[in-house]
Write a structure and sequence with these properties.
This protein is an all-beta fold. It is built from two helices and 30 strands. Keywords: Guanine-nucleotide releasing factor, Repeat.
């Protein structure tokens, strides 16, 4: 019997070679700086211990000092927990541990969730990230460990096919990761080869590698456990091979992801866009990576994206906002409209901003003189102004325990905010030993 002949493809017929991706290696990535260390202050709700002030203090409306025996270089606020990175590369956690977000056992000690304590990891940590119920840590050797769980509209997804991971679990073995980012229920990884991997919930398109039909773990063609495996195991985002794209930065939003093309200003986005918060001219979820012409106009230092709004910090220290206006989260004033395109926040026109942060419906910016400004929803004191009123414009945040300290990092979660600040002598500032004021 004669051998069956294969029909040549269209490209073969016309002599066109298939596009190949050029080999690419990232030498360095812009990570949050860990050269400065300071003390941690917190404000907002602390019902589950996320303020780290002990079981007797469940709410603060101004920033209050946490007593820690370590020099802290970075902080991340999750949904109901807080993560700190120490100068020597250790991770400290406190807050809700119902689903393992603290990465340590709290069952053998009463009220252990309210007390900051160490997570055991195999090497020095250089970056941390946190979502609603998970935490991730990037080690100095390029490995990533994560713990906790992801959730979707059907409830608990687990972090792996085994379910919740209460202790650190290596999540992307075999890849040298340069940077990580967390959304509410997904993690983004940027590898040394300039590739972007994602895992977790895909329902809003935030993984960038599913269709609307395959975004749910109960997808009809997903066959149950096999579909869940596709979501929980990190996979490459879906890109046209002909684009030959590599990336050199990533940012995670609550329900979205942003990825910067290497050596260009191009920003690819995917995820929830119901208020234009990822910079696309429609309000449908974007399930596959798409170039945002609006975000690609600027040179970004940092992008922070929450539920329905996004703020961005440019290389020249200016802050832009886009998305939903309710509660003042855009910082554009009482009478502003929904921002369908990026708008520069006028308040910072004569100031240079060095870092930003945002929570569910809050926004923050730190200027080069170490001053902290906040705006948005103030329901439980998460802005730190001293009351529970919303702020429609950037408002200077003060407290007795902040004193003259200069702020250099801010992060906000579901209903609480954590601040990293320093002075010339972090351990000898008058008032540190006084009782936290209301």
């Amino acid at each position: 019997m004669s051998t069956k002949r294969r029909r040549p493809s269209a490209t073969e017929e016309i002599g066109v070679k298939k596009a190949k991706r050029i080999k690419f290696t990232l030498d360095s990535v812009l990570l949050p700086s860990i050269t400065e260390n300071g003390v941690v202050l917190v404000t907002g709700a602390g019902d589950f211990g996320q303020l780290g002030l002990g079981p007797d203090i469940l709410e603060k409306c101004r920033p209050a000092l946490i007593k820690l025996d370590h020099e802290i270089v970075d902080i991340c606020a999750g949904g109901m927990h807080t993560v700190c990175l120490t100068k020597d590369g250790k991770v400290i956690t406190f807050g809700c541990n119902d689903e393992g977000a603290l990465g340590r056992s709290t069952a053998d000690k009463e009220e252990a969730e309210f007390i900051p304590d160490m997570v055991v990891l195999p090497s020095k940590v250089v970056q941390i990230s946190a979502g609603d119920s998970h935490t991730a840590a990037l080690l100095d050797d390029g490995r990533v460990f994560a713990w906790g769980t992801f959730r979707d509209s059907h409830g608990n997804m687990g972090l792996t096919l085994s379910g919740n991971e209460k202790l650190p679990y290596e999540i992307l073995p075999g890849q040298h990761v340069m940077k990580i980012a967390s959304g509410a229920d997904h993690i983004v990884f940027l590898t040394k080869q300039g590739d972007v991997y994602t895992c977790g919930c895909a329902e809003q398109g935030q993984l960038g590698r599913t269709s609307i039909r395959t975004s749910s773990r109960n997808a009809r063609n997903g066959f149950g456990k096999g579909q869940l495996e596709k979501l929980l195991l990190p996979g490459l985002i879906s890109l046209k091979a002909s684009l030959r794209l590599h990336f050199d930065n990533i940012w995670g939003g609550t329900y979205a992801t942003f990825a910067k093309v290497a050596n260009k200003d191009d920003i690819y986005v995917f995820g929830l866009n119901n208020y234009y918060q990822i910079g696309l001219p429609n309000t449908v979820p974007q399930y596959l990576p798409k170039l945002s012409k609006d975000f690609s106009k600027y040179k970004w230092e940092m992008i922070c994206s929450a539920q329905h709004h996004t703020i961005g910090l440019t290389k020249d220290g200016k802050v832009y906002a886009i998305g939903r206006k309710e509660y003042g989260r855009l910082g554009l004033g009482e009478d502003c409209e929904e921002a369908q395109e990026l708008i520069k926040i006028p308040f910072f026109a004569d100031k240079k901003v060095v870092t930003i942060g945002c929570g569910s419906a809050t926004s923050f910016a730190v200027t080069d003189d170490g001053k902290l400004y906040g705006w948005g929803m103030g329901t439980v004191g998460q802005i730190g102004t001293g009351d529970e009123e919303d702020c429609v414009e950037p408002t200077l945040i003060k407290s007795k325990q902040m004193g003259e300290r200069k702020v250099f990092r801010v992060t906000s979660g579901g209903q609480h905010t954590a601040i990293l600040a320093m002075t010339s002598d972090n351990n000898n500032t008058k008032g540190d030993k006084e009782k936290n004021e209301s």
